[in-house]
Amino acid sequence: MNRGKISNILRALHILYLIDWLHFRYEKIKYRKTNNFFCEQNPEVKLPPDYLLYESYQLNYKKYFTDGVESAQWLVDHLSKHVTLEGLKILDWGCGPGRLVRHLPLLTESCEFYGSDYNQKSIEWCKDNLSEISFNLNPLNAELPYPDNFFDIIYGYSVLTHLSEEKHREWYAELFRVLKPGGILFLTAQGKHYRIKLTEKEKKIFDLGDLVVRGKVKEGHRTYSAFHPESYMLKLFTKAEVLEHIEPEPVSGRGIPQDIWIIKKTM
Ligand SMILES: C[S@@+](CC[C@H](N)C(=O)[O-])C[C@H]1O[C@@H](n2cnc3c(N)ncnc32)[C@H](O)[C@@H]1O
User: Fold this and answer.
1) How far apart are CA 246 and CA 62, in angstroms?
2) How far apart are the CA of 217 and the centre of ligand 1, in A?
3) Ligand 1: which residue has its CA nearest to atom 25?
């Protein structure tokens, strides 16, 4: 049976969260030895509590850390095609426990970094451990404390992927409010390469250009999933110029990469 179908049955029975929690316990056991080894070898690396790691990425310390370094460089490389990364204000929206943003000050020293997330525990950990970055706790609803036209760049790595249709629209408007005219919005989404994961019914919705949402769990949590047809995203991005839409090809053994959308605020 298609895994999407199984996950939808677990959602309908309201036990997906429980299954996901059991999966977390299983991963704790699976990675115990390698994670202990990583800590012994890298005592200087601060790591968030296990569930925060699991919830926002994967419970493999080495992968969490090295992928964070790689993702930060990958982000800088993409952004540098469109903007000079000097003296800018940059927001990581949906920063989780800082997997990516923690590495950015080393790559672009003259920029100011901010992180915001709706997960209180992640933001508490970030505030206590990543002192070079300013963190903010936001609600699930689209409300940020920053003034209009404040940021030069906002990025959200795998955040839209956990939100409803309504929240896509509301957050897009809020992110654009705090982004300067001419500023860059960088978002990832589960685009056409994720179609293979959908059930037949979901594929029909996707092919009509509508957002596919798998809910019935807490919105924003890793088990809440959204899938993004290109035409849906193009309709979402108003008052903007799409600078790039990249659909990276899947690489065997590395999971399906998310689409990259790089948008410029035009007014
Ligand atoms: C898959 S994790 C990605 C975390 C981080 N961007 C990274 O790449 O490691 C999704 C993140 O989005 C956050 N999130 C979900 N809904 C949110 C919202 N409404 N506002 C801010 N963050 C949200 C979650 O708390 C979580 O940290």
Assistant:
1) 27
2) 15
3) 119
The domain of 89 spans 67-265
For 95-105, the pLDDT digits (tens) are 999 999 999 99
Cβ count within 10 A of residue 168: 20
Is there an atom of ligand 1 within 6 Å of 98 CB? no
One-letter amino acid at 71 equals S
List the Cα angle 114/109/178 in 5-degree steps: 30
Asked if the structure places residue 52 within a domain, the reply is: no
- Establish if 109 belongs to a structural domain: yes
* CB-ligand 1 contact for 199 (6 Å cutoff): no
- Assess if residue 171 is contained within a domain: yes
pLDDT tens-digit map of 120-142:
999 999 999 999 999 999 999 99
The verdict on residue 36 lying in a domain is no
Torsion, Cα of 160, 166, 172, 178 (10° steps): -110
Domain count, the chain: 1
Q: Is the CB of 174 under 6 A from ligand 1?
A: no
CATH number at residue 242: 3.40.50.150
Q: Which atom of ligand 1 is nearest to the CA of 157?
A: 6
Reading phi first (left if > 0) and then psi (alpha if -120 to 50, else beta), residue 239 is in left
